[in-house]
């Protein structure tokens, strides 16, 4: 019926113990000659900083420092400067930047600290960056430097970095009945699965929650060629053929080959991200073959934008200053979809629904708006819940889809039905609604979106939870990649 494979044996590196802690200092704002001086040099020695490879406007130097509180500033072409994007204070040497290093590398103040239960809720955190004087204006040089460094990282590392140390990947045979396939998706708590063609001995596609949405829409049509009885024996291959015929009908009968989007373990992370963005898919299978003709393929993992974002977070964990835009509040960045304000009639409307809206309306909106979830709001547009593509697979349990009419059941009723089940789809740390504030810095948004199962953050007003906008994984990557 379906197969799973495990990949193990990934090497992990441990932290080395030392009294000194390596700290990278970066000046990303240009200059001809840049030096670093600070309390750790007793302000008497000027350490030369070197231009970063591929980015001559950014300078860096790595110093090994004792744990504790340090002050520093930069000498740029003979003039003393401080970085306004980093914590700073007024001291004996004028305005200086500050850092505090703790004794262990795992305890270093980091914008990419591991997730803490409850941190994904709507709250203003009093972390180390709460001490920062944030410049809410984004300069073109900061944006260029940050994008360049991220692009260099993504071009250097490969999809092999996304492989977990161990785990399973589920694949469906194309002759498996659709009903059974979606029951497995529901039971396993996964949003999609690659498809295997036994006769061709190769992977040929992917089955996702969107397929189930289209099937339910097809069942709801009076002129549907697919009955509920047929769904019990309707195979994945048969459904894909129906879907292909519908596409040809909508495209004036033009036939075009089905394109299976996948990647290999040695493809760079930037190309993997672009494949996901350009093909509008949630994830791409990582497939490896030891033969030149591509036979005997091995399914290693499903690569998602969340996986890649987690790699970015891990890589820049202790060098956040090298990405200046991370400290900007999301409200000051052209990022995401926002509720139009007065005087902004041309902004793209934000898809939202009331709890009494029909399930059919929700499914149509998921398809038309090409989004993975929709905020459910009250009459004041305050957030009540969220309906996601993955919620639809809950209807596969006990053939619930056969007992309801998507035109008559409300979104609220559908969500209540789904909450009685044990499916982990769409949940992270037991939470359904993942929120943030417009004042939250970009690094905090990236941290939350890097959590498994979190594909969108709803931007809300403090207190009222009135919806102001939405930021998705796709939004973040389109912004970072330019």
Q: Architecture of the domain at 326-481 in CATH?
A: Roll
Using the alpha-carbon principal axes, give the shape.
globular
What percentage of the residues does DSSP assign to strands (E)?
Answer: 15-25%
Percent range of helical residues: 10-25%
Query: Radius of gyration, rounded?
Result: 25 Å
CATH topology of the domain at 326-481: CBS-domain
Describe this protein with a few key phrases.
482 residues, alpha+beta, CBS-domain, six-stranded antiparallel sheet, four-stranded mixed sheet, 11 helices, 21 strands, 24% helix, 23% strand, disordered N terminus
Give the helix/strand layout:
Blueprint (H helix, E strand, L loop, with lengths): L1 E4 L15 E7 L6 E5 L8 E2 L1 E3 L2 E11 L2 E9 L2 E3 L6 E4 L2 E8 L38 H17 L12 E5 L4 H11 L3 E6 L4 E7 H12 L7 H6 L2 H15 L18 H10 L4 E6 L9 E7 H11 L21 E2 L20 H10 L4 E5 L5 E6 L22 H9 L15 E2 L5 H8 L6 E5 L6 E6 H9 L1
Parallel strand pairs: 11-12, 19-20
Antiparallel strand pairs: 1-11, 2-6, 3-4, 3-7, 5-6, 7-8, 7-10, 9-10, 12-13, 14-15, 16-21, 17-18, 20-21
Report on this model:
The protein is an alpha+beta fold and 482 residues long. The longest helix has 17 residues, at 140-156. Among the domains are: 160-308, Roll (CBS-domain), CATH 3.10.580; 326-481, CBS-domain. The protein starts with a strand and ends with a helix. It has 11 helices and 21 strands.
